[in-house]
Amino acid sequence: MRIIAGEMRGRQLKAVEGMQTRPTSDKVKGAIFNVLGNKVLDARVLDLFAGTGNLAIEALSRGCREAVMVEKSLAAHQVIRENLERVGVTHKAKLLLMDAFKYLNRHPHEVFDLIFLDPPYRQELVLKIILSLKEYSFLTPTGVIIAETAKDETLNEDIYPYEIRKTSEYGDTKVWYLQKTDV
Q1: Is the separation of the CB atoms in 89 and 57 below 8 Å?
Q2: Average pLDDT, consecutive stretches of 10 residues, N- to C-terminus, the chain (183 residues)
């Protein structure tokens, strides 16, 4: 796993040992950032279920202003800390050891330009997080939620004020791009 573009391009990131954490592949990560384009520049990023920090660190490499990373696994949290130190961006990152839902409940006034959601597959966690995000205004008016699920998962409940703007599939992974409906 490596940073694929930006000022830290080519730098290797450490993975979490075992099968509990499934980092976003370089192919999927590259596709996500191609879709986002310049939205990353000077963005404030939230990475829930941060895993290895792969997505947030890629955003930092590509010019985002700040990344908040939330991870409840102690082992993954330690790997993220090592990755942030390895690439020298600890000053631009806030790393929290906590559950994603607790973070949302404790920080209802935080606002982000990009929100990455890459939870364990097939547990309907993306839908549950989106329903939690609806309660407060976590997303800027032109912000984007980028969610990864298994390809057979759906977002079949009312997710208003968000709407699905694009989906893409890569192997067993489906990537969803959501924005507020009035954008």
Answers
A1: yes
A2: 91 80 83 96 97 96 97 95 96 97 94 96 92 88 95 88 94 95 75
